Amino acid sequence: MGLARELAKKVLDFSFSDIPSDAVHQTRRLVLDTLGCAIGGYGSDASRILQGYVRETGHPGESTVFGSGIRTSCLNAALANGAMVRYLDYNDTAFILQGETYRTGYHPSEVIPPILALCERQHASGRDVITAINLGYDLSLAFLEGVQGPGMEKKGWNGDTRGAYIMPLAAGRILGLTEEQMESAVGICGSCHAVFGILDTPAEEYTMTKNIRFPMMSYAGIMAAMLAGKGFTGPAGMIEGHDGFVHSIMDGEYDVNRLLDFKGKYTIRETCIKSIIADFSSHGHLTATLTLAREHDIKPEDVAEIRITTSKRCAEHTGDPVKKYPKNKETADHSSYYLTAIAIVDRQIGPNQFRQEKYTDPRVLELIGKVVLQGDPSLDKARPAGISEIITKDGKTYRLRVNYPRGHARNPMTDQEVVEKFKDMAAVYMSEERMKRLVEAVFEMDKLDDIGKLLDLMVFKKNE
Questions:
Q1: From the CA atom positions of the chain, what is the Rg in Å?
Q2: 272 by DSSP, 3-state: which?
Q3: Is 117 part of a structural domain of the chain?
Q4: Where are the alpha helices (DSSP H) in 253-410?
Q5: Helices 112-121 and 213-229, interaxial angle, to 10°?
Q6: pLDDT of residue 391
Q7: Residues 86, 41: contact at Cβ < 8 Å?
Q8: Counting Cβ atoms within 10 Å, is residue 77 exposed (0-12), middle (13-18) or buried (19+)?
């Protein structure tokens, strides 16, 4: 039996009754957080362009585009909604240790928009949704844990490539495919789709395409499952076969046993819900800077220098020259220089800190020039730990190290904090009553017989 067939068998053997109650509750929290992030990204240029495209395509009304309520194919809904969720870089994150020090991060909640879109098409229950989401989370981690050697990024590939392999399995289960059909779906999608590292490299300014890395893989994964369900075939050995994923993309540096060992881990318990908008590797030092600025009333004009010590990976990923003076949102949320400066100027890092006038604010630009960023390899194992040291013009020094910023699995948000984060983004478009109904629906989603009832509440711009 090939790897894809083995994975399919395990996916089909998984059921809602297997999921512990705490993992079910965490799933509800993450669905709410993800929907909030989608609302936060609704007004972005990326969202506007994609919704314009969706309107022009005229697909059948299977699924709902968040906000506008456009009825379109589940494929288009997965793409448009996925881009909204990813835009702010505010959705959850998880990370794994690769090698001795190098940690790689990813956003497991990116499986949620495509699962919701397909489940709406299928009139699936809330329990079906929760089951599929947990499978998506566990498969995401297992896929990336299999990566050996220097990692996918060092080989020129992005970890969101995992979507081409895990989404056909999640979609296949939702669609009721057989093991053989799911095996073909993995072959169809994996052989035709991958994400290049240029979409997340220190050497290039980020673009809107960053927002659709995983959504495009999801689009392809659902399509592959639909084709396989109609008898379309794909290579059975896509993962381990000659010139397949392990051979061609990973140069053989991949442990397939880690991939197969996904069932029953319930990794959704360990995901981190972001409390600030930034690449998660920078949350330690940014939380430290925010805390110091607030507690000691440090004003921009008081600062002589800001010394940031973070992981080597964070320094490389968020401290390269291309990102020092960002010009767009996609780059700004990965710029430790900008984020450190805006943390002192505004004393918060939320949706309002990513506007064009902020990128050109003279106070921000001046502070960016005072930031000294250094990577310490010893912090890679402790990522996202970081240290902020602020030296003021009067000679005072304020220093703080943060190991577990708010939202980290070891310093989790309360349910109320998750709700407040959601409302902070949703209140721009929704009434208090609408938000209350949506929150209640999410926290009772395992009782819904049709997930579409919940998604109806995500429509707030019908007349656009």
A1: 22
A2: strand
A3: yes
A4: 256-260, 283-295, 312-318, 329-332, 336-346, 356-359, 362-368
A5: 30
A6: 98
A7: yes
A8: buried
CA-wise closest residue to 457 among 425, 428, 433, 423: 433
Q: Please give the distance of CA 86 from its chain centroid, rounded to a whole number.
A: 6
Residues 260 and 294 in one domain: no
Domain count, the chain: 2
| Region at 407 (left for phi over 0; alpha for psi -120 to 50; beta for the rest) | left
Residue 103 has pLDDT above 60, yes or no: no
Number of H helices, E strands in the chain: 19, 8
Say if CB 319 and CB 375 are below 8 A apart. Answer: yes
Band (pLDDT 50/70/90 cuts) for residue 101 is low
- My answer on whether 319 and 352 are in the same domain is yes
**Residue bearing the bigger pLDDT, 50 or 204:** 50
pLDDT digits (tens, 9 = 90+) for 261-316: 998 899 999 999 999 999 999 999 999 999 999 999 999 999 999 999 999 989 99
How many C-beta atoms lie closer than 10 Å to residue 360's C-beta? 11
> How high is the pLDDT of residue 79?
98
Helix, strand, coil abundance in the chain, percent, nearest 5? 55, 10, 35
Residue 329: which domain range?
280-402
Residue 360: which CATH number? 3.30.1330.120
Residue 143 confidence (pLDDT): 96
H or E, element range at 225:
helix 213-229
pTM here is: 0.95
**Same domain as 65, residue 204:** yes
In this structure, are residues 320 and 202 in contact, taking their beta carbons and an 8 Å threshold? yes
Confidence class for position 464, pLDDT limits 50, 70, 90:
very low
Nearest by Cα to 102 from 396, 419, 379: 379
Tell me what pLDDT residue 434 has: 95
Q: Which of 77, 49, 85, 41 is nearest to 61 (CA)?
A: 77
Spatial separation of the C-alpha atoms in residues 428 and 424, rounded to whole Å: 8
Residue 119 and residue 264 in one domain: yes
Whether the per-residue pLDDT at 327 is higher than 60: the answer is yes
Question: What's CA 375's distance to the chain center, in Å?
Answer: 24
175 belongs to a structural domain: yes
